[in-house]
Amino acid sequence: MQNAFDDNRTPIAAEIRDEMLWVTLKDGRVIGTPLGWYPRLAQATPEQLENFELWAFGIHWPDLDEDLGIEGMLLGVRPVVQNKSSAA
Predict the structure, then answer these.
(1) Residue 13 lies in a domain
(2) How many domains are contained in the chain?
(3) Which strand (E) or helix (H) includes residue 49?
(4) Which site in 11, 30, 44, 57 is 20 to 30 Å from 74, CA atoms measured?
(5) How many Å apart are CA 63 and CA 55, to the nearest integer?
């Protein structure tokens, strides 16, 4: 049985530049997604963006309460943004 956790997908670095989120994975791949896909990140201050934590499966911005999974980034899945007015 193969382990579901692929250590090669672990992020080792993240950077926001040129309106893109760039993530370097342990196996050397660099993946990028448009910052506009993530409204919380797009509207954040530079200080908020610089305060992130790399987790085994993704990236967490504690100041923004934002988590992004590497799997979704690899698949090119654009996150669904919930409208606060529709949440009840």
Answers:
(1) yes
(2) 1
(3) helix 46-50
(4) 44
(5) 16
Of 21-25, 70-74, 76-80, 84-88, where does mean pLDDT reach its minimum? 84-88
Q: Domain limits at 57?
A: 7-77
Tell me how far the alpha carbon of residue 42 is from its chain's centroid.
Answer: 12
- Cβ neighbours of residue 43 closer than 8 Å, sequence gap 6 or more: none
Per-residue pLDDT band for 88 (boundaries 50, 70, 90) equals very low
- The tokens for 71 are 């799997």
pLDDT one-digit tens code per residue, 2-36: 456 678 999 999 999 999 999 999 999 999 999 99
Per the domain annotation, does 82 fall within a domain?
Answer: no
In a domain, 83, yes or no: no
